[in-house]
Amino acid sequence: MCGIVGLFLKDKALEPQLGALLTKMLITMTDRGPDSAGLAIYSNNSDAKSKIVVQSDTPKIEFEGLEKALSAELDAPVSVKIADTHAILTVPANKLQGARMAIAAVNPSLRIMSRGDALEIYKEVGLPKDVAARFEIDQMSGSHGIGHTRMATESAVTTMGAHPFNTGDDQCLVHNGSLSNHASLRRKLRREDIHIETENDTEVGAAYLTWQMKNGATLGEALQSSLDDLDGFFTFVVGTKDGFGVVRDPIACKPAVMAETDQYVAFGSEYRALVDLPGIETARVWEPEPATVYFWSHTDQPTEEKAA
Asked: Which runs of consecutive H residues, i.e. helices, occur in the chain?
């Protein structure tokens, strides 16, 4: 019984409020999952820089000297901004993949939360209000984001088990439900050289989409394929650099509601997550249909694809 929220902003005037709006939405969903929480924030990036967010249980020790060590290992400038147990590493865009190897060489105990040009993921064990406060999410601006509060069913309550899961550059996923074929699919994806860090079924769902897109599928096509290849009950909300997508399994027993105005598109596990959004009283509100892919992008028109 996890809680999911998502907010895609059409109106740039709302971007300074993204973190505050998402935080309030997620806190409303606290009773759907008190174990751990996380938020993914997408912000505009036009300076040819990429970001990796890492986490440590002992940040005062492990973040000390990290900037100097990574710069030397990567042979490129690295800046480090510390946010509680997380650190945002900024590197030249052409050094992103090398930076992941540099982190493993300098300190393999650091956990990578996210990577990409626009994406930052913050997640920890605890209630949404506490996790959001630790990272000052309500002060963050951006173009879109997704969040999750978890009630663990498939794996331990840990930071790495919290959502969102990032398995590809600027791609992340949150999930309500349970995938019954995640063990066999995990083995298959690892054989295909897709990195999977945890035993969480949601990470397998995220990695499956990464694998599909690595082989040439669009996100919409990957989500469509998931309806055939993933067994179980699931509602996915997926973030990408340009937008976000939603899909529910063919039975669609997990709750979901969406709202759209001229300013935004919003997703919540329940309507109460949306009630404080600006203009919600005049929004088009609907329940996303089973086996139907919805996707909004800042560069393309919104899409809706129903399974045959």
From this structure: 18-28, 59-62, 66-74, 96-106, 128-135, 182-191, 201-214, 219-229
